[in-house]
What we know:
The structure holds 2 protein chains of 2 kinds. Chain A is α/β, with parallel strands linked by helices. Helix content of chain A is 29%, strand content 24%. Chain A has helices at residues 57-65, 87-92, 110-119, 136-148, 164-176, 194-205, 220-223, 244-249, 251-258; strands at 6-9, 19-28, 31-41, 46-50, 72-77, 80-81, 95-97, 182-186, 212-217, 229-234, 237-243. In chain A, strand 10 (229-234) and strand 11 form a beta hairpin. In chain A, helix 3 (110-119) packs across helix 4 (136-148) and helix 3 (110-119) runs parallel beside helix 5. The radius of gyration of chain A is 19 Å and the shape is globular. By secondary structure, chain B is an all-alpha fold. Chain B has a domain at 36-243. Helices cover 79% and strands 2% of the residues of chain B. Chain B is built from 13 helices and 4 strands. In chain B, a hairpin with a 2-residue loop joins strand 2 (151-152) and strand 3 (155-156). In chain B, helix 1 (2-29) runs antiparallel to helix 7 (160-183), helix 1 (2-29) packs antiparallel against helix 13 and helix 7 (160-183) packs across helix 8. The longest helix of chain B has 28 residues, at 2-29. Chain B starts with a helix and ends with a helix. The model of chain B has no long low-confidence stretch (mean pLDDT 90). At the A-B interface, helix 2 and helix 3 of A face helix 7, helix 8 and helix 9 of B.
Amino acid sequence: MTAGSxxxxxxxxxxxxxxxxxxxxxxxxxxxxVDDVSLRVAPGARFGIIGPNGAGKTTLFNLLSGEIxxxxxxxxxxxxxxxxxxxxxRAALGLGRTFQITRVFTDLTVLENLTLAMHGLSRSKLxxxxxxxxxxxxxxxxxxxxxxxxxxxRLTAVAAELSHGEVRELEVLLALALKPRVLLxxxxxxxxxxxxxxxxxxxxxxxxxxxxxVMIEHDIDVLRGVVDSAAxxxxxxxxxxxAMADIQSDDRVRDIYLGRAVRPPGTAGxxxxxx
Amino acid sequence: xxAALQLSRRFTGPVAGVAIAVILVIxxxxxxxxxxxxxxxxxxxxxxxxxxFLGGYTGLISLGQAGFLGVGAYGVAIAEAHFYPPWAxxxxxxxxxxxxxxxxGVVAVRVKGISFVIITLAMGxxxxxxxxxxxxxxxxxxxxxxxxxxxxxxxxxxxALTLRMTVLVVFAVVALLLITFTRSxxxxxLRGIRSNETRLxxxxxxxxxxxxxxxxxxxxxxxxxxxxxxxxxxxxxxxTMDFSANGxxxxxxxxxxxxSIWGPALGAVVIVLFQQELSIYLDRWQTLMGLxxxxxxxxxxxxxxxxxxxxxxxxxxxxxxxxETS
Lengths: 275, 326
């Protein structure tokens, strides 16, 4: 156990971190899913949280986004304590998230999905008498967002008809529609084909530089080229943190997490060598 | 042929709407069985549409809606029995159902899915039980008659024709309001709740508030139907709120088509036809109704309205094909 281990990413620790967790714990009836995790993510950082399945990554994420409350510890967004805030309040403060099990509105069209997201932080979401289609600014912005990532031709398609890769893109776009300052991505490439992974990686790399990204992934190849630093989670606790290059060559990571030798750089996974 | 199809695509909806309105106005002119039947359909359709707003859009199926119909109706009847003037009695009925909706909503929106069905069922049964057993207030099994209806100047609901036309107008207003609501950003959020509430919360929506508002709207409009009901029937008794009444309302919504507002109105028309027309000629009308429901659920999951929409889509596909070949 490495109780109290802390991970700092990006710029100096003196700046207010975009997102910080302090001593986060979450127990489920005796099972400690997240054990005293502290981390600081600097503004604009590209931060990865890696670990094998069952390491507590998604639980940690849910603590950060507010889906579940921590048993102990604190969550801060740009220095503000958000530990007690429900998800919709955190979203309003600039914390966006995607879900590992894709959660788009499957009965709604792509345009409806994105418009719904656009209204999320506006008072117009409680407007009853004006048709949503008449909010030209919102729908135009939604269409433009879809256009940035190749969903422009799919605006009228019901989300249930989209391909797996398109759903992943829509999922990320829903979060982006709120113009978050910090975006939590829960395994954005899970279940995708190698070609689709390359697309998702390209999408992630094209996100604005001022956006802080925190990304969970159990496949280290997906993170390569997207994140600059990472923390390794094992059995609910942080075991290593630092720059991606260091993480990949860390012996403990190799033993605990990979359970196999890290592949030499020349034969890195096909996903990592995409355009 | 292509031109005819394109014309039909543009005008089917408006033409059908105007035609139905004209037919209704003509039929409602005459006293007698047909106009009574149509008035019943319109009153029940208001309940069915409200139920659809909650069930079809928000995903909250209420099995207690007849209870709120009863509250609106009993509110008027009890107030009149206590010598309130008719308009004040209408205020009492609508006020009672609104307050009850606001209060019970706090409880009802805490649960979803099957728990919501059960909790609304319980609410409906409690309201029915009150109507049945609180004899001092509700006259129990006998019910309460309402004989004096509101009037103002030349507008007099005691005139049967004025009352029937008023029911038609209220139906139209409620239908248009509900349709407007469903097309608004708020309506979109309700569909979002049904589709994936967790995701919607992560997008900044206080989903509980949205469910609460949808509930209050649905309960209030059902109360409006209750006020019309007691004026049309001249009597409110516990039978109107019993369990089978709740079942019939859900049947109307499912048969007509969840999530379409007009569909459940159509469902109300069909169910009332079964109940009041077919039952004259056929003892086993309920068997036939059950078979009809099974057939609709099997062959058109979107209900009767879904079948109409599918026909429209086939026409659009045909238009597209013809345009390609020409």
